[in-house]
Structure prediction request, 353 residues.
Amino acid sequence: MAFEKELQVAQLAVARASILTKAVFAEKAKGTISKEDKSPVTIGDYGAQALIISAIKHNFPQDEVVGEEEASSLREQKDLSSKIWNLVKDTKLSDSDSDAILGGPIRSEDEMLQAIDAGNSAGGSKGRIWALDPIDGTKGFLRGGQYAVCLALMVDGDVKVGVLGCPNLPVKDSEPLKEDMGIAATDAEGYGVLFSAVQGEGARSQPLTKGSVSQGHSISVSKVTDVTQAVMCESVEAGHSSKGDNAAIAEKLGVTGRPVQMDSQAKYGSVARGAGDIYLRLPVRKDYVEKIWDHAAGDLIVREAGGQVTDIHGQRLNFSLGRTLTENKGVVATPADIHAQVLAAVSEVLSAK
Ligand SMILES: Nc1ncnc2c1ncn2[C@@H]1O[C@H](COP(=O)(O)O)[C@@H](OP(=O)(O)O)[C@H]1O
Ligand SMILES: [Mg+2]
Ligand SMILES: [Mg+2]
Ligand SMILES: [Mg+2]
Prediction:
């Protein structure tokens, strides 16, 4: 199998980081601060980024990382930094062999800050670069909704390995999607799933555990042929994706059910396992450029599960252009069989605006 070591490290690193995010959630003291772009970031985002980057650097010292967060504001806020350190230093996998694969604990607060800052790669089309979103759906995380710990490896701009840890999604692939699924799910029996894919080798799912990882089982997109019966997934946040356009597209397709709203790349995971059928992310603002870490893992997992992922113009997402998807607008992710039909409805609705 290709990228065996990379997959194992990514899965274990995501599982370990999820232990930290769940602890932050349980503590309720999330230490939210606002970034320059007004988006929230929590001690969970920073702690998860530190743990994952340190695991990558331990195993693949030459690899670069495009990570969402950076530590400059933490260096000015010592209280916040020491709170994060207190969590990070005690977070480990319950299986000691697995934890050792990740290099064991980070040794000092300073090393933790350095790890966070090592997510500063400019990205691009050359070499091995990881794309990391330590908590995707931070607003969902804060609300007690869905969120995902997202990690992907790109080689020469092409996504080869993708892993999504979704602590609040059901383990069972076939469980129908519900909007309030997140709230009581953290650490509840039957919740927490780890999705993964390696290019050319399909997509898989397994329970997200605190110890080790397994082979999991293979997943595939739904076999929906009648789009009127499709389950659509969209963001909770109206500022992230245009709900009005989504509704117009649903109407054009004759979709009868209400869309399921959930935060994060849990939407990609849900389409990949066939629990949802269509994920639409339609631009709200002309000037917003999507970030590679919001899509890299989900894009591969859906495509390896038999889905098709494009932007609103039908172009594949291009991860080779830096930290953002400069050439793409929006996302349309569906089973391959219905993609052309959905994309046609997207084009009609958006061109009529
Ligand atoms: N105007 C905008 N349009 C689209 N996405 C946006 C946006 N502003 C922020 N985002 C991104 O939307 C992500 C969450 O997506 P979703 O709505 O699917 O949960 C955020 O990730 P983070 O939560 O990691 O910051 C952020 O990167
Ligand atoms: Mg963010
Ligand atoms: Mg994100
Ligand atoms: Mg994030």
Q: What stands out?
A: The chain is about 35% helix and 20% strand.
